[in-house]
Amino acid sequence: MGGASRSEKQRRQAANQRLAAAGITPKQSGPSGGTRIALIVVAAVVVVAGVIGYFVIHNRQSTTPNYAVAANGTVVTAGKTDAPVTVDVYEDYLCPVCERFESRYADDVTAALNDGKIKVNYHSTAILDSLTTPPGYSTLAANAALCAVPAGIWPAYHKALYDQQPAERSAGLTAQQLVDIGTEAGATSPDWASCVTGNGNAAAITAATKAAIANPALLTNGQFGTPTILVDGKKIDLNDSKWLSNAIADK
Amino acid sequence: MERGRILDVIGTLARLGLAAVWLVSGAVKAADPDQTYIAVRAYDVLPSDVVPVVATVLPWLELALGVLLLVGLGTRAVAVLSALVLVVFVAGVVQAWARGLSIDCGCFGGGGQVAPDATAYGTEVLRDVGFLLLAGWLIVRPRTLFALDGRLESRPQVRSGERN
């Protein structure tokens, strides 16, 4: 390899000598024009990547939730009951794509809820119970989220469950950790801790999960998965990043 | 064929090979941004604010490196950048391995949590080291055939009548 670059150097020297013989002085200072163009292009790529990153980070301003929340069985309804658009969210707190959905759209959904443009039914489903050791984190977290409604911390707790989502195939979070997250989020009621550790909604969550799996309107390619999102009863394509603005614009 | 010419051909194959790696991996990642986000998050290294940034920028950075290598523009600089990115990838995989996470690297799509017996850290690191060798060759000897670099550099020499 060293030999090759030496021979190239010799070749270039020979060329320069011929140029000199012809009375032409080759430019020696700094990188040649071609190399400079190439370096400018590469630098531009790096700068563009940095600028995109900067804007991605700064476009994430969080919206403070100020919408009403009510629980009905295992369904938490957020927003005004007479809102023109109804969104149904079937989620599992262990599911990475649900976390992605939350992190990607939470601000837009919160803004639409605050403005009374939509109401959202959050369906607590637990299809990933077997993916923690010990099993059952999905149900435990779904139960805790239902407890967060009477405790008055649902929006903050729902967000916190995703911010602190444990990995699939990990131990999950313990009931005590779920209690602590709620206490940090402002749960003060004496029932909060016992509601979370008691896991009293577990049977209802299991039943709701079975019902969801059996509901043909919720299936994607013949299978139920989370998240499944409906707008006015129709399942949306999760790859459609404009689903919410389209849903609101149609009204 | 003289020795320099053979080395040019090897360098060209390295350049086009590395270009193919970046173009394929970048395209697969760009086509499924949600999966890319999940793959980046599964490494459990970056703060949650930074995960979406990396997941958004990375596919396009890979595609840009691929295009620059394909046309052979700024080959040495692009090879240095490629090597840096690959070293970061290897570091990410090794830390996941060392910490006992069970994830797929998401190098060519996919990614995220997998069953503990479905990890392939050794293969993934070995593959990245292979790509690093390609980048290393181009850093040491960026001269290749069919490259814009060569065209841009050789212009004055051709005009001066080197072919006399």
Automatic annotation (TrEMBL), chain A:
Keyword rRNA-binding: no
SUPFAM superfamilies according to UniProt: Thioredoxin-like (SSF52833)
Domain of life: Bacteria
CDD domains xref list: DsbA_family
Residue ranges of the TM segments: 37-57
UniProt region (Disordered), positions on chain: 1-32
Alphabetic keyword roster: Membrane, Transmembrane, Transmembrane helix
UniProt biased composition (Basic and acidic residues): 1-11
Compositionally biased spans, kind Low complexity: 13-22
Thioredoxin-like fold domain boundaries: 73-248
Keyword Nucleotide-binding listed: no
Pfam families noted in UniProt: Thioredoxin_4
Stated name of the protein: Thioredoxin-like fold domain-containing protein
Species classification: Bacteria, Bacillati, Actinomycetota, Actinomycetes, Pseudonocardiales
From TrEMBL, chain B:
Transmembrane segments: 12-30, 50-71, 78-98
Top-level taxon of origin: Bacteria
Keywords annotated in UniProt: Membrane, Transmembrane, Transmembrane helix
GO cellular component terms attached to this protein's record: membrane
Keyword Transmembrane: yes
Domain Methylamine utilisation protein MauE, first and last residues per copy: 9-140
Entry protein name: Methylamine utilisation protein MauE domain-containing protein
Organism: Pseudonocardia sulfidoxydans NBRC 16205
